[in-house]
Specification:
single chain, alpha/beta, Elongation Factor Tu (Ef-tu), domain 3, Rossmann fold, six-stranded mixed sheet, 10 helices, 14 strands, 26% strand
Length: 313
């Protein structure tokens, strides 16, 4: 049953998302176990019981909320160290013999990303965020208390043959990993994938390319003008676009789509927003983001993936 927020009517523009089915399929708290080390800027694995979470057509854009503190009641009696739950975005799901192996990556969010740049831009978010710092200290086999998965994720159009992925990893290195699941799912549908990545330098990209399927065409850019030129040229042939870009780029991207294609079909361009996700049910309002035509909406309930035309005019 969906949680209802009595203040929702105060946010103009939310009515257009009223039909979104975001967390009705979320599960009660579940205990997973770390299956790899948690390293800054990289995905890590968590094992969960098999058949516990329903199969989703696409996992990209969905997230869990992890409790960053003692997961067991007995530990809580002697250690009161805990923080607010932190979002972990799904980067992959693999069925094993008796359980499932999920690949996850922390989401920096708006506030944490700003603090991280001030403290340690080279090492990623763990050094700046107390919750993720706790997570990074956990060892393989340790239990994790998870809620989820939450979120409206990406959806691939049935007629999609050419998928364009846009990741501005200069803004947030995690964009690459959050969009990664779409590669395999598009290829499994018989489609073709072009991954356009913007980075501050070539070194930032070199370490990521080996994680992509060999069938994926990779394009890279370093400057703003080159990025816009590449986006414009690749939009011309794309059947669908899925993007991880900063909020200040939404209007620019929509203009490029209109210039290149003359009209913007619904769901042609989908964007994963970078919001602060804490409760997953829209109660705390920390995730509120501006949308087109002056409205506001809650990214954890109605997103975090939105149609581009909902975010910009």
């Amino acid at each position: 049953m969906k949680a209802r927020n009595p203040q929702a009517r105060d946010h103009a523009g939310e009515q257009q998302f009223a039909g979104a089915n975001t967390h009705s399929d979320a599960l009660p708290p579940i205990i997973g176990h770390l299956d790899s080390a948690v390293l800054p800027g990289q995905t890590f694995a968590v094992r969960l019981p098999a058949n516990l979470i329903p199969q989703f057509p696409i996992v990209g854009g969905r997230y869990f909320l992890v409790r960053c503190g003692c997961p067991a009641v007995t530990e809580g009696e002697v250690d009161w160290t805990h923080h607010l739950r932190r979002p972990l975005f799904v980067c992959g799901r693999q069925k094993m013999d008796r359980d499932e192996r999920w690949l996850l990556i922390p989401s920096i969010g708006r506030i944490d990303r700003r603090n991280d740049r001030e403290s340690s831009p080279a090492k990623g978010q763990h050094g700046a965020d107390a919750g993720y710092a706790w997570l990074a200290k956990q060892e393989i086999g340790d239990p994790l208390d998870l809620l989820g998965p939450f979120g409206n994720g990406f959806s691939l159009l049935p007629e999609m043959q050419n998928l364009l992925l846009l990741a501005d990893i200069e803004d947030d290195p995690a964009w690459f990993w959050k969009l990664l699941p779409l590669c395999e799912q598009a290829l499994d549908k018989g489609g073709r994938v072009t991954y356009l990545i913007r980075a501050a330098n070539e070194e930032s990209i070199a370490g990521l390319v080996p994680f992509l399927p060999v069938q994926v065409e990779v394009r890279t850019t370093l400057g703003a003008s080159q990025w816009l030129e590449q986006v414009g040229s690749t939009l011309a042939w794309a059947d669908q676009v899925c993007a991880g870009v900063p909020a200040e780029s939404y209007g620019e991207l929509l203009t490029l789509v209109r210039t290149t294609r003359f009209r913007v079909d619904r769901n042609f361009a989908q964007v994963l927003v970078n919001a602060d996700l804490l409760c997953g049910v829209g109660a705390c309002l920390v995730c509120v983001i501006p949308i087109a035509r002056g409205g506001l909406t809650r990214a954890c309930v109605h997103g975090p993936v939105f149609d581009l035309t909902d975010l910009a005019e």
